[in-house]
Amino acid sequence: MPSPVARSAPDRRRRTLAVTSILVVYALGAWLIALPLGPAPRYRLPTCACADVAQEVWWLAVAAHAPFALHTAAIDVPRGVSLLDNASFPLLGALFAPVTRAIGPVASLVILLRLSFFASATAAYAVLRSARGRDLGAAIGGAFYAFSPYMTHQGASHFFLVFAPVPPLLLALVLRVAVGPTHPRWPVGVVLGLLVTAQFFVDSEVLVITAVVAALTLAVLAVGTALRRGPLVAPARRLAALAWPAVAVAAPLLALPVWQTLTGADRIVGSTQPTAEGVGLLATFLSGDRAVVAGLWAPGRIAVGQYLGHSSYLGPLLVVACLVVVARRWRVDRLVRAAAVVATVAWVLQLGAHLTLTVRPTGVPLPFDLLTHLPVLEDIIPSRFGQLVGLGVGALVAVGVDGIVAEVSRLVRDPRPGGRLAWGRPLAAGVVLLAGLVLAAPDRGYGAHRVPAAPELSAVPVNQGQGRSAAGVVPRGAVVLAFPVPAFPDDQAMLWQAIDDLRFRLVGGYAIRPGPGRRTDRQPLLPPPQSVPRELIGAYAGAAVAQPGAPGWVAAERSLSMFLQRNRVRAVVVQQGLAGSAAVDSLIRAGIGSPTTSGDGMEVWVVRPTR
Known about the structure:
611 residues, alpha+beta, 2 domains, five-stranded mixed β-sheet
């Protein structure tokens, strides 16, 4: 008779092969979804070289120079902006700082985008595999979580929301302690505290969302236990034993950033994001972008905005499959109960404060309305609860797949009971589940959008006539006035700055900052005299008053030299071929003469300081 060691060796090899194969498939999916971008592009980005994507490239560049900094003066001259008021993902920026310095922030972001999908899928797979003990269901459930419509939609502009390996680990740890029979030891609480800290420095909003869903899930499960007259004191003690070491670890690590956010000079009062609307109820069942077959079915599409996303789409077949799993396994499977409650709680909260069928709210209040009146929670965008809807649905999918496989295996071993009719149930369930997954799968990856030519201002020579040039350059840390003036969504100048290794500072910028009354202000900070940057912004926007001869334009012409000298501007950069470029070009030429250098669609003026 073979020894236990001999018997376990083939099992270990099969296990290793299974895990390796699953991870390879995840890596392949993460690679294919950004296939047009290539391995590490220096000047190509997904979706666009603008808005949040450009800003995220810029945050990576900032972190490469000053990991975990709380403030930066690289934009919004002279005041700068707080990193704590913005989604600056300092942990990812710090970890990838060597990569960013080596290959540039654009390539670093593309690598992080792929890593985000892979890490999220792997974490969900590990959690489900640990709970179920089977690979196939856990692998498919993890893939759905990482490549769900929510994740693929957010990956187009918010890669840090796709980097979500922590929420499955947090929820699994808390729920397992709450329903498990064993008392947790203090190292488990330490791990929880480290996970909380890590997620805070990736994205604090996701941490708050995970905490809200975990608390409500525990409350619902506690009510169910009370109705069954089950024990409540023991779970409460286990959670308390988990909480104290977690707080002991997280509190000192988060004390300073939390204190600065709530009481610092750059603190913001009220919400920093557009949180009023939730996703439409019908968006769960009718498809939008990034869905394979359903996305090609034009009559089934609905039009929703960016924040409402098509991120909530599941499709009727997948919803039916999950309901069947819940109906069959609710009483006997703790994972099904926890996953169903997580998915339901998150789904209700993503609907927002008032019920919306497609786009327009009906005025019917929903539970999320209570959160909008609470500090910190008032800052949550409802649609982002869709991440945990995907996690709960992925867990139910894993249970469903394992159930179908078990039923088919039983029929293969013993085909006699029930005859041919016995195959009908698992076959029908498999068809519905597979069709539901196909309908919710992403239909395409991200495109490749080239960054407009980025002038490396630290190497711009100063023309001295006769075709000769001197070694004069824009010094590191110099202030630059760019056209377009960086603001949402046209913040290309921040991309130039990031690619040029943050060697210069910018007038204006796209960021969240405190405005009048410490309320959120997304408009760039404009130093005086404000007529100059305002006219440049108006010229790009096509404002009728922002053109030569208008009163504001005349004032800008008169105050240009004063603006440049007062704010110590050492270079002016104008991107050609845009709305208002010709007018701005004439304004700068009238004020300081011909450009120092031009080419690649750019004109650059080096401004000599006055003595």
